[in-house]
Design a protein that fits this description.
Elements (H helix, E strand, L loop, with lengths): L7 E7 L4 E4 L5 E14 L5 E13 H10 L5 E14 L5 E14 L7
Parallel strand pairs: 4-6
Antiparallel strand pairs: 1-3, 1-5, 2-3, 3-4, 5-6
Length: 114
């Protein structure tokens, strides 16, 4: 059971071009947004879409894969864990951000996808 603690799997579309940062330590980090959609029928029987946005962070080799192959609109599968961090905003308020730290990325869709 220990393998399912804090485990996230998502399939969605990349919302914007990934941001790649090379740190002084030599490590590489990639950040991008991922949209996941759920479909349901409302009371009138009409199809509705509920979109959720997730911030995805990838490090090291996974970040290199993101840099080479992941572009806006691309469908990807993500496996990783949730990580919450806090920071102080410019107006001196404590803010919290929850991100998906990706361990694995699966490139989906056809090879013709950009």
């Amino acid at each position: 059971m220990s393998t399912i603690k804090n485990h996230v799997q998502l399939i969605g579309n990349v919302g914007q071009e990934p941001t790649i940062t090379n740190l002084e330590s030599g490590k590489k980090v990639a950040r991008f947004s991922l949209a996941t959609n759920e479909y349901y029928k409302d009371a009138k029987g009409e199809k509705q879409t509920d979109t959720n946005w997730h911030t995805v962070v990838a490090w090291g080799k996974t970040a290199e894969i993101v840099e080479k192959y992941v572009v806006k609109g691309k469908e990807v599968g993500i496996s990783g864990k949730l990580k919450t961090r806090s920071y102080t905003s410019d107006d001196n308020e404590q803010r919290y951000v929850t991100e998906v730290v990706a361990d694995e990325i699966l490139l989906l869709g056809s090879k013709d996808d950009k």
